[in-house]
Amino acid sequence: MISTDVLWGGQLQSVCFDPKAQNASIRILVSTDGLEVLYELTCLKVSEFRFENAIREPWSYAEVTEVSTVPRAKGILRLEMMLWSEDCLVQCSCRAIDLHVCLGGGDMIAELVGQVVTDLLAIAATVFAWIIVARITDAIVDPQSQREHPKRAHDFG
Fold first, then answer.
1. Which of 34, 55, 94, 155 has the greatest count of CB atoms below 10 A from its CB?
2. Exposed (0-12), middle (13-18) or buried (19+): which is 6, by Cβ within 10 Å?
3. Which residue in 114, 100, 96, 122 sits closest to 44, CA to CA?
4. How far apart are CA 49 and CA 19, in angstroms?
5. Are 4 and 78 a contacting pair, CB within 8 Å?
6. Residues 102-157 pLDDT 10s
7. What gap in Å lies between CA 150 and CA 138, rounded to an integer?
8. Contact status, residue 98 vs residue 41, Cβ threshold 8 Å
9. What is the C-alpha separation between 112 and 27, in angstroms, rounded?
10. C-alpha closest to that of 30 among 7, 2, 14
């Protein structure tokens, strides 16, 4: 059984239920020490999906206060997720639950790739500048190095 502890305190981003495929996917953004990770919790072969809400005030975001998986009879798993308090629950009964880092949906991935590309371009520009400076310095210090050397007899093989 998977551990869902990493999701506690995260922000619910989306819930998608596909009755045709009988699957549900739940995306949760978790921030730890300034690092944001987008997780996707997937429930396969869903037999029951419930959302209960007794909180009437509007929310600016949905905090995932608690998440757990509980094994039931006949190979059924029960996902129980509390949003803010016991007055708001998401529950799902299914055959399997998968949790993975979502690689395709977060702005954090694009931001990270953009930063890596920017850093690599800065390094390449610095190295290129060093090469140019080194060649100019060599030409100033040793002007002979820039002239063609006369061919010697042993250079012709």
1. 94
2. middle
3. 96
4. 10
5. no
6. 854 455 566 666 677 787 888 888 888 888 888 887 777 665 655 555 555 555 55
7. 20
8. yes
9. 19
10. 7
State both tokens at 20. 């045709």
Residue where the block lists tokens 């390094």: 123
Contacts of 120 (CB under 8 A, 6+ apart): none
Compute CA 63 distance to the chain's CA centroid, rounded to the nearest angstrom: 19
Among residues 61, 65, 59, 62, the alpha carbon closest in space to that of 9 is found at 65
State the pTM of this model: 0.63
Structure tokens at 110: 């694009």
In angstroms, the CA 71 to CA 55 distance is: 28
- In three-state secondary structure terms, 133 is helix
Position 133 scores a pLDDT of 83
pLDDT at 94 over 80: yes
- Each residue of 12-41: pLDDT tens digit? 999 999 999 999 999 999 988 888 899 999
